[in-house]
Sequence to fold (516 residues):
Amino acid sequence: MFQNLGRIEKYGYWLFAIPALFFLLSPAKFPADDGFFYPQIAHNFVNGLGFKFNDIYTTNGFHPLWMLVCIIADFMITLPKQEMIYVLWLIQIVLFFLSIKCLQPLFKDGGIGKIAGVGFLGLVFFSLGTLYLTEAHLNLCCIALLLNLLIKGRAGNGWLLGLAASMVFLSRLDNAFILFFLGLYCLFGDTRPKLGDLLKAGAICIVLGGGYLLYNKFEFGNVVPISGRIKSSFPNAEGSIFGNRWGIIFLVSNLMYVGLLFLTKVDFKKLKLYFVAGAIVQLLYNLYFQSQIGQWYFVMQMLAVAFMLYDAVNLFLQKFSIRQGKMSVMFLLIGCTIFLSSVSYIKAKTNVSLGSNAGGGNEEIKEVRKDKVQVIAEDLKKNLPADSRVFTYDMPGKLAFYSDLQIIPADGLVADKGFFTQIASMPFERYLEDHNIRYVVLPSGFQKKGPIKFIGIEAVNENDRVSYAMRSSFLKRNVSKINLEDFNLVKTFSNPLKVWQPDYDNVMLLKLKKEQ
Fold:
């Protein structure tokens, strides 16, 4: 069925780097806001502030391995902060193709099946762009390395296996579910390592993973990072499998892949079954117990879909004895690259969001050459005093990165436990005074009636009047009223998040009346 694809197999998939180049047209428009936490904290660390998003709170609200990469890059390369994202972007491209290299045994024979699987990964990691600057590309690379080592089985190295497993854990802590099932594979799988190698691997995991958890416990009072504690409702299930569109898609597709694996004969069947089982359990945990789930939560599920596409296409070709040659594969490679590049171009030039307005609803699709949050951030930088502290209901990552101001997020995802103690123990205005925070950014112009909850604040639109309350994302309740009469309105902006948050039209910048 297969011809020797030669150089096409070896080099052809580098064409999928072309869609990533569109990031250069408008870098702020691609990544989610959370991705900007990393270069901001790395910049502060390198400049002597420690692990801080702003100049007030030390935090562990990040995934440690990707933060380490960002800090090393910032140390080694002397560039202005706004240009460092291009370095991180390049690192993520390299990590992606290292992942594909490590996954080569699982994508063997190349051809159309590999185009389907790797092309899908190119779509979600490059073209859609939401995963840029997040830990996702590193997460993919770490799991790819671990799967590669597990394929080697008894010929592998225990120390390296432990290092890879630790990297998977430190790239995202909820990968513990994946590691549990791959651990079972090490005991019952087809290519299980030697017992001595498993003991070596376990020792490395205890030292690296356990060391990180102990650091969190002693420095921040809990083994789990503050961001994980805020977003998690465990053991109370507050979410639902029906509450997230992407979650439903990946759950259904992963379950379909389990059925395909049981019903057919494919290479590394057991390894894939254990992996996708872990991916499903991880997904269910996040859907039921996590809030504000972004696409970077779905890396393992995306990889499972890539495996499914590869296996399904190859099974189809085998069943109908379809022969694929160099010309057909090259033609499909070019066609796939053009498609992925077209998606990237649309993303760079418009406000399209596949999950929010691509199918209609919310803000209509239109040409937008520059990220709207970046525009607001640059306005704040121009008109507010340098190093002003600004308390914001949302979008703190881009505001901090592009304004060079001290941004304090209402949700506390990059704060510490002291933040939640403070906001719960005093009126909101007193908290601002005590911390020399003069400016506040809040949503306004609500179209929806009733309560509208954000992670860190709650707005209630009733009787043509909007009231606001400070909300503790740690305690999961409102803690103090926000009295608008204590503020002066400085400026109003159109809602830059309208595509994702359609319930309000504007964002207002307020200044505390009392001089500090």
User: Anything to note?
Assistant: The chain has 18 helices and nine strands.
